[in-house]
Amino acid sequence: MHKTSATRYITTSLVLLFTFILMFAARCNSKFRKMESDRENEKAIKAAAANRTKNLLKTIQGIPFTEVKRRFDNGLSFSPVGFQLVPEWRITFPSVDSVTIFSPKKNRFLNAPVMFDHDSIFNVAWAWLKLTYIKKDSIQFMVLHVHDNIIDDEKVHVFMTFYTNDYIKNVLHSDTLKLWRPSRKDTLYIKDKTMLAGKIPDSAFACTQPAVLVSKSKYVTVKKRQYPTKLMAANHTIPIFRQLMIL
Predict the structure, then answer these.
(1) 3-class SS at 165?
(2) DSSP secondary structure, 45-58, as one string
(3) Distances, alpha carbon 194 to alpha carbons 197, 202, 205, 223, in Å
(4) Residue 193's closest CA among 205, 202, 201?
(5) Residue 34 pLDDT more than 80?
(6) What percent of the chain has pLDDT over 70?
(7) Where are the transmembrane segments (predicted)?
(8) How many Cα atoms are found within 13 Å in the side-chain-facing hemisphere of 69?
């Protein structure tokens, strides 16, 4: 019995459909395998980067460091609104996954976790940092602004520079109070800002030591009150550097 044209058409269509399904499934399977391979490669790259950072930290394990400079990426410690970055961290890495850090509020050293990510990025004392360099007597971190595990590169960059206590004392023959002083570049910047503010009132900026009003009359009292301002709102660098203060 010969097959009709309709029967042959249906058979051919089914064969083609089945072939297409097999090809589509094979292609999807190939893409899935590639995605899995890419994920595994990404994990391997992150793990290798974390191991490199861990090995770098092992070279300074147990050595006490003191922060000597905290600067914006333009080399200044003052922001355009007058906020001053103040170096204050004192740290030691007793192991590659923990850091001992000084808490000014509690006046003692506290232990905090170190969590590694990729590309020399890790979380130290609940602040995201990127290791920019590590040398025999110094290390430097760049502060990262992270939101929902995404790095915001549009924020201004801040760099924290540390020297070993031994280097400060026995090589520089100095102390932290001297090293913490504003640089000449800072001084010239503030002088320019002050001259501009004297000419243009709208150019006024916040000062590190606010003026204090004192009443000369026993009948008048002066009380300082603080209100949120645009300057405070604009200063997005404050929170990340005050996290340590709540310890």
Answers:
(1) helix
(2) HHHHHHHHHHHHHH
(3) 5, 12, 8, 26
(4) 205
(5) no
(6) 78
(7) 6-26
(8) 19
What single-letter amino acid sits at 195? M
How much is the pTM?
0.68
Q: What is the pLDDT of residues 173-182, one digit of tens each?
A: 999 888 988 8
pLDDT band with cut points at 50, 70 and 90 for residue 162 = very high
Cα–Cα dist 29/27, whole Å: 5
Q: Nearest Cα to 145, choosing from 136, 155, 135, 132?
A: 155
- Residue from 73, 69, 77 nearest 189 by CA: 77
- In sequence order, what DSSP letters do the residues of 175-211 get, joined into one string? -HHHHTSPPHHHHHHHHHHHHHHHH-GGG----SS--
Dist. CA 180–CA 32, nearest whole Å: 55
H-helix or E-strand containing 71? strand 65-72
Q: What is the distance in angstroms between the CA of the first residue and the CA of the last residue of the chain? A: 90
**What local confidence, expressed as pLDDT, does residue 174 receive?**
92
* Residue-range domains of the chain with CATH: 65-184+239-246 (2.40.128)
